[in-house]
Write a structure and sequence with these properties.
Elements (H helix, E strand, L loop, with lengths): L5 E5 L4 H12 L3 E8 L18 H14 L3 E5 L1 H17 L6 H20 L4 E3 L4 E6 L2 E6 L16 H6 E2 L7 H10 L3 H4 L15 H8 L3 H5 L3 E4 L4 E4 L23 E6 L4 E5 L5 E12 L9 E6 L7 E8 L2 E11 L6 E6 L2 E12 L2
Parallel strand pairs: 1-2, 1-4, 2-3, 4-7, 8-11
Antiparallel strand pairs: 5-6, 8-9, 10-11, 12-15, 12-17, 13-14, 13-16, 14-15, 16-17
Length: 366
């Protein structure tokens, strides 16, 4: 075994994870590559050509790099693990009137646990991925901190990793920018990889049509939810809609109703199949409740902390007073925030460091 140790690298076939593997190999680690098949495009029912992390082309790309670099590569099938948990949760959240973030859930509950199990079986001390983030240690606790590239930082999607996962994880790209990673790929002779486009769709919704996905996977959905009421913020009926699962907080386009002025989805009430519409100012909130949380930098939040709260990927964040009440985190924004969506992730930062994160349960004007 290498003096630096043996590391299991998750390789999707994309540029980031591939360069991460090549970097660790060059640094003297004993690298083992692994590609996880989480979804079968043939069963998606969508119209888009098979691309992305689960496609045959991506799997072959990952294997080719491993063979050329001279380290082992394995493919593991975790479709059952993935589908039963991530996809069921995705459907359940939309049917509850919330907006899920399946990538966060997959990282936290599926990919890392699958990687660590295989790392143990292969006697690997570490696992590594191509995320743009870094890990720090302070006072005996490990936590995620933002990567060097502010435009590419992926710390937000990693808030759910616990201390054991963090102790085993390595993020080789954290100190680099995306252009630097593309240049590395080119310098190593991988020109096609350096130019490879990124995929932003949810892997099991490759055509980016979540409406179609729900219709295909929830029996009789359209008949159950079609014809619910659009209400204004005072409770007046404005018209009927196609079904509450097909709308998200903050949505303006595609409402299917003309009201003479821009209107936005401000609330979704699943039990009554109701979608509330309002003006842009009706989207702002100054508080929210966050549940199912995980703490990183500290083992508990003091009575109250002033932190920057990020409510979506690429959100610049808002200063907030944060405190724990029972099994929830109570958040008071110091400036009103637009489009707080239950089901999405809230991540709390102290500077660039993640204090913790959780799932938005509700929002309010206090």
């Amino acid at each position: 075994m290498s003096k630096k140790g043996r590391v299991l690298v998750a390789m999707s076939g994309g540029i980031d994870s591939t360069v991460a593997a090549m970097m660790l190999h060059e640094q003297g680690y004993e690298v083992i590559g692994i590609t996880m098949k989480t979804w079968d495009y043939a069963n998606s029912g969508g119209s888009k050509k098979e691309t992305g992390c689960c496609s045959l082309d991506s799997i072959n790309d990952a294997r080719t790099v491993a063979v050329n670099m001279g380290f082992p590569h394995f493919i593991i099938d975790i479709r059952d693990e993935f589908g039963n948990f991530v996809i069921d949760n995705f459907i359940d959240e939309y049917m509850a009137g919330r907006t899920p973030n399946p990538c966060v859930l997959c990282n936290t509950h599926i990919k890392w646990s699958a990687l660590i199990r295989r790392a143990d079986a292969l006697d690997c001390e570490f696992i590594a991925t191509g995320h743009y983030a870094k890990i720090k240690e302070q006072n005996g606790r490990r936590f995620i901190t933002k990567g060097k590239d502010n435009r590419k930082d992926q710390s937000y999607v990693l808030w759910g990793l616990d201390q054991h996962c963090l102790s085993r994880s390595n993020f080789p790209l954290g100190n680099y920018t995306k252009p630097e990673i593309r240049q590395m790929a080119a310098d190593w002779g991988h020109l096609e990889l350096a130019k490879k486009a990124e995929s932003f769709e949810i892997c099991f919704v490759p055509d980016d049509d979540y409406h179609g996905f729900l219709k295909r996977n929830v029996d009789g959905l359209e008949a159950k939810v079609n014809g619910g009421n659009f209400l204004d913020t005072k409770g007046n009926i404005l018209g009927t809609h196609k079904g509450y699962p097909f709308y998200t907080i903050g949505q303006r386009k595609g409402l299917g109703i003309a009201l003479g002025e821009p209107m936005y989805v401000t609330e979704i009430i699943a039990p009554s199949n109701t979608v509330v519409l309002g003006k842009v100012e009706d989207l702002f909130r100054n508080g929210m409740k966050v549940g199912k949380y995980n703490l990183m930098k500290y083992d508990k939040i003091p009575e109250s902390m002033e932190l920057t709260t990020q409510i979506r990927y690429n959100d610049p964040g808002t200063l907030s007073l944060v405190k724990t009440i029972g099994d929830e985190i109570d958040v008071s924004f110091l400036a009103n925030v637009k489009g707080v969506a239950p089901g999405q992730s809230a991540v709390f930062y102290e500077g660039d460091d993640i204090v913790g994160g959780g799932i938005i349960q509700s929002s309010s004007i206090k």
